[in-house]
Amino acid sequence: MIQNQKTVLIVDDNYEDRQTYRRYLLQDKQYIYRILQAESATLGLELCKQGKPDAILLDFVLPDMNARAFIEQLQVEFNTNKGSKLPVVILTPQQDEALAGDDETYDYLIKEKIDAVCLRFAVHKLIEQTRLELELEISKQFIKTALSESEKRFRLFADNLDAIIWIASPDSSQHFYANKAYEKIWHRSCDSLISQPLSWLDAVHPEDYERVLVKLQQQENGQLTNIEFKIIRPDGSVRWIWDRGFPIRDETGALNYYVGIAEDITEQKLAHEQIRHLTETLEQQVMERTSQLQAANNELEAFAYTVSHDLRAPLRAMQGFAEALAEDYGKLLDEVGNEYISRIVNSAQRLENLIQDLLAYSRLSRTDLYLQPVNLNNVMFEVMTQLDGDLKAKNAQIAISAPLPTVSAHPNTLAQVIANLLSNAIKFVRVGEQPQVLIWAEITTPGWVRLWVKDNGIGIKAEHHQRIFRVFERLHGIERYPGTGIGLAIVRKGVERMGGRVGLESIKGQGSSFWIELKDDSR
Question: EC number(s) in its UniProt entry (predicted)?
């Protein structure tokens, strides 16, 4: 049995809510959870019969009974008093908050406000409650024995607890016992409490005093008590106290005295408040960051418009004039003059290609991509048709291991990714060597398809495997291997936007095998 393993039962008829709570709990680093789920109160009670959970997350309204009826049946099952508190947190919709507030016996979480932090905090509190109540139960049994057999042994046990163990008359007119933790927490002596049984009330914070008096009235009536309140120590410091009182009755049912446990929970309260503050701060930062990203996207769109219209227009004019000059006056120019014209045309075309790739990369970064089932065979046919001229010019040999599966992707983006990979495969080969490319797909892990593009090219050193996917990263001169240095950056960006991954296997001089991995959508 793992010491930190705890059993949590989620009773909720909403499947999505159950899965959300389960995910929140599995992210907890403090405990390892065994999570049971029930979509009805009846099933929840059956699971409880198999073993008492450490914590129960209970929907307020269930199809077959409400939370209160569930708790009543659970008390019968566990043979507990009606007033006893079970390890339950009730989950209630927003509109039931007022109704939930009628009963302070159990903690309530408003469903619309539940997040991972507050849910785990509530479960931790239940686990701690169970642990402390177990200690208390041990203490109660030990007290009965100690009062009749060995008060010394009881004191040795209780005085080593961090929590206060107290024994008092139902009307609080007498305090029979308090362990040394009272002096540590209240900064008052145990003797003063015994001689002046109500002196502990002097430390109660004015904001909580009336609620504490209500607690004393409940105690006098023989009810189980459970309250959190603040105290002010003699040095002026404020501490949070969690106090529970349990009635002890004789064989006839007459109320004899109360046994209670009080714990200093200041650190937990401060931590919870700090988490709440950090959560609010984080939400504000997210809103600000979202606004900044929106502004950046707007600026990027404006830049793309400028590039598309203001830069490409004079570029086309330059290309047009250079081509006209070559056509109309080429015969009048010598070889050097015609070479200059050729350089102008080629440079303008490279700049046009660069602008097109930049715009493609920009669109991938800001355009919403709607994924759908895409047959890789169809995409491959489209790409082969698109690159037909380049393939014939290079006399490239392309072998495709068909049939290829269906993946979840954005059709145009996937076609662009594969086209870039295939273009690279036939480009980066040794001079005079025929490009040979092998394309196949495989299932690497359940639910994922990996598409491979393997070439017989010049290969890539291992230290450059990540670098080549960055924008403007080139390993070779543009004169030897033309290109913009953006093609593989578009591949990575496109695949990641579709929820996938990219990678390669390559050794210098032995070719390269690029792969992309996307979700399998074969039906």
Answer: 2.7.13.3
> What integer is the mean pLDDT of 467-477?
59
In a shared domain, residues 347 and 482: no
CATH number for the domain spanning 495: value is 3.30.565.10
Query: Token pair of 465, please?
Result: 């495997």
* Residue recorded with tokens 């914070």: 205
What is the DSSP-derived secondary structure letter of residue 40? S
Cα(152)–Cα(205) distance, rounded to whole angstroms?
34
In a domain, 227, yes or no: yes
In a domain, residue 434? The reply is yes
The CATH number of residue 334's host domain is 1.10.287
My answer on whether 300 and 252 are in the same domain is no
Q: Which amino acid is at 191?
A: D
- How far is the C-alpha of 421 from the C-alpha of 429, rounded, in Å? 14
Residues 282 and 203 both lie in one domain: no
Asked whether residue 356 falls in the same domain as residue 384, the answer is no
Q: How far is CA 25 from the centre of its chain?
A: 11
Q: Would 152 be classed as within a structural domain?
A: no
Take residue 405 and report the two structure tokens written for it.
Answer: 């599966």
The model carries a pTM of 0.41
Burial environment of residue 400 by CB neighbours within 10 A (0 to 12, 13 to 18, 19 or more): middle
Cβ pair 306, 277 in contact under 8 A: no
pLDDT tens per residue across span 391-426: 898 888 899 998 899 999 988 889 888 988 998 888
pLDDT recorded at residue 101: 46
Name the pLDDT band for 1 (thresholds 50, 70, 90). very low
Token readout for 196 is 């002046």
Tokens of 88: 């339950």
Alpha helices in 306-334 (DSSP H): 312-329
258 backbone dihedrals φ, ψ, rounded to 5°: -115, 140
Residue 221: DSSP 8-state: T
For residue 444, tell me if it sits in a domain. Answer: yes
Structural domain containing residue 434: 368-523
